[in-house]
Amino acid sequence: MTSCEHPDFLQQDDNMFSCQVDGRGKKKDGQPGSPSSSHLAYGILDVPPWYLCILLGIQHFLTALGGLVAVPLILAKELCLQHDPLTQSYLISTIFFASGICTLLQVFFGVRLPILQGGTFGFVAPSLAMLSLPAWKCPEWTLNASQVNTSSPEFIEEWQKRIRELQGAIMVASCVQILVGFSGLIGFLMRFIGPLTIAPTISLVALPLFSSAGNNAGTHWGVAAMTIFLIVLFSQYLKNVAVPMPIYGREKKLHTSKFYLFQVFPVLLSLCISWLLCFVLTVTNALPKDPTAYGYQARTDTKANVLSQAPWFRFPYPGQWGLPTISPAGVFGIMAGVISSMVESVGDYYACARLVGAPPPPKHAINRGIGIEGLGCLLAGAWGSGNGTTSYSENVGALGITKVGSRMVIVAAGCVLLLMGVFGKIGAAFATIPTPVIGGMFLVMFGVIAAVGISNLQYVDMNSSRNIFVFGFSIFCGLAVPNWVNKNSEKLQTGILQLDQVIQVLLTTDMFVGGFLGFLLDNTIPGSLEERGLLTWDQIYEESEETAKVSEVYGLPCGIGTKFCTSSYTRYLPFWPKLEHRGRAEVGACQLTLYSQDSSGECLKVATETKM
Predict the structure, then answer these.
(1) Mean pLDDT for the chain?
(2) What is the three-class DSSP state of 176?
(3) Which DSSP letter does residue 113 get?
(4) Which residues have a Cβ under 8 Å from the Cβ of 64 and sit 6 or more positions away?
(5) How far apart are the first and last CA of the chain?
(6) How many Cα atoms are found within 13 Å in the side-chain-facing hemisphere of 448?
(7) Which helix (H) or strand (E) holds 293?
(8) What is the pLDDT of residues 446-456, one digit of tens each?
């Protein structure tokens, strides 16, 4: 695909949503295109028609679906919920709802870029480490499905006290992220955190989860292999294959248009086909009925009662599992995930700005974005999702596919997440996915996350023996040290229970061990800025000048900071937009873009500049 080709998700009078470029960099209608914004069907400040916003918002929800569903399912076993799919569905609905709230906060008051917020894998490793402490290990009877009565008060208390502990740790650790963001400390930290710190940290988010993914896939390797094959087939081999789809337009009425179905929905299609295969194998009794037999977990009727038990509508609310509890071990462990999440989000902000044709985000927007993400983690913890929230890289990539950079589409996606969180049957449906199908999806997803971490090494000189040592040693120790501590925790006893728990959680969190060693070695072993990748890093994260365009994109809504709350004291706030003097002809921060159509169906600019 060229840099401007995209799936015609919904053609509006045939040409309104197309963006084809000839060999000289111009659109086929003869209009010249700029290097960035001309490649977009809708720019960040444009407002597509309401129905396009809804359809594209649903697409963003489906793009993030794999990650949103994966986090509660990974935590289910350590929360003693592996035999309680109904409660798993409640956790899935809660994370949908919390992600919707956090997305709307980020778009309106955060960095103001079209970035979806969702559950973070950065919190999974420290959460699993905390729940593996002797005090939080699940009793043996909860591991046996025949002994579990999901409605008994004893069982309910077993899983609720664990998730309350997670809630407290997430809420306290998120306060650190709020402080780092709104105080402007993130800019100071980025001076010392380079690619050689980021690469092992992000890679070790996924690498230690191979055991969980392998165990799930191992319940039926045939079904898991089928799921992996379909995901790879759709996302890699068929991604450029356009499928004719029926489209209704005002001029041509009902007609067909080509849509890159496999490129947009590879995970969803794979899950549905594998799910259908398991259903057929269940109906034909090709899979065993004995719960102890190999392949039983691939049956679709093992969790069939969940859909009937789940309510049609269920409103998640703060403290739904009880009052959160706090322990130092959990807080320090989650802080390691917070740091990883912050650094990754800063990279997402710059990537998103480039894709939607916006200027690089200024410092106040980055500070505000990190602060709002911390607030989002606080809310997600209060709601009891068992996880925090962060910017979703896969949805940033989706912007490059659809060529729609309007933040109103992400507003629609946030509203879709809220609705899906309230609609209880949706969460129940995803909780009934057969275990080997989940395992196959995890194997692909975790592999991609590990590769994303390693891709940060493109900025450093990997011909340097210094850099090879820093990365290799950090990765290896990040895997070896937690493995040893898990098997020999009694050898690290200090006699102080709380201190022992903190040490064990930190040293069994792979991403903390690898990231800390990468940070320490990269900042102490002599090396030039170019060799360490910091020169290129700084060029990518260069400061954006406070121009009218920057103020228009990253300013607060409804004139806050420009028309209202313009006190001279606000200039000392690191997250407040810089006040500039505008002319009468310049556009206010809260003005909407208006459009009209001529007889040929073309969109005409009325109030502000648009990128069509």
Answers:
(1) 79
(2) helix
(3) S
(4) 99, 116, 118, 392, 394, 395
(5) 20
(6) 17
(7) none
(8) 787 788 778 88
d(CA 395, CA 383): 24
- DSSP track, 5-47: ----SS-STTTTT---B-TTSBBTTS-B--SSGGG-SB-TT--
d(C-alpha 386, C-alpha 163), whole Å:
6
DSSP of 309-354: HS-SB----TTTT-S----HHHHHHHHHHHHHHHHHHHHHHHHHHH
Note whether 197 and 471 are within 8 A (CB): no
Q: Does the model's pTM come out above 0.70?
A: yes
Phi, psi (5° rounding) for residue 605? Answer: -75, 135
Distance of alpha carbon 349 from alpha carbon 345, whole angstroms: 6
**Long-range pairs, 451-456, Cβ under 8 A, ≥24:** 452/202, 452/393, 453/198, 453/199, 453/200, 453/201, 453/202, 453/203, 453/204, 453/205, 453/206, 454/199, 454/203, 456/195, 456/198, 456/199, 456/202
Sign, CA dihedral 376-382-384-386, equals positive
484's enclosing H/E stretch is helix 465-487
Alpha carbons 334 and 122: distance in angstroms, whole number: 8
Buried b (16+ CB within 10 A) or exposed e, 549-585: bbbbbbbbeeebbbeeeeeeeeeebbbbbbbeeeeee
Contact (CB, 8 A) for 107 and 365: no
- Pair of tokens at residue 571: 């200039």
| 247 phi and psi angles, rounded to 5 deg | -130, 140
For the record, the structure tokens of 459 come out as 């900025």
Tokens 């556009």 belong to: 587
Q: What is the DSSP letter of 563?
A: T
How does pLDDT run across 367-426, given as a tens digit for each residue? 999 999 999 999 999 998 888 888 887 777 667 666 778 889 999 999 999 998 888 888
Q: Is 149 helix (H, G, I), strand (E, B) or coil?
A: coil
The Cα 307–Cα 303 span in angstroms is 8
Which residues are CB-neighbours of 154 under 8 A, at least 6 positions away? none
Residue 363's SS3 state is helix
Q: How far is CA 86 from CA 73, 89, 430, 579, in A?
A: 12, 5, 10, 51
Q: List C-alpha distances in Å: 184 to 366, 369, 573, 575.
A: 9, 11, 9, 7
Note the pLDDT tens digit of each residue in 231-246: 889 888 988 888 887 7
- DSSP per residue, 205-271: HHGGGHHHHHHHHTT-HHHHHHHHHHHHIIIIISTT--EEEEEEETTTEEEEEEE-HHHH-HHHHHH
Segment 69-100, tens digit of pLDDT? 888 888 888 888 888 888 888 898 999 999 99
Give the orientation angle of helix 435-455 with respect to helix 266-283, to 10 degrees: 160
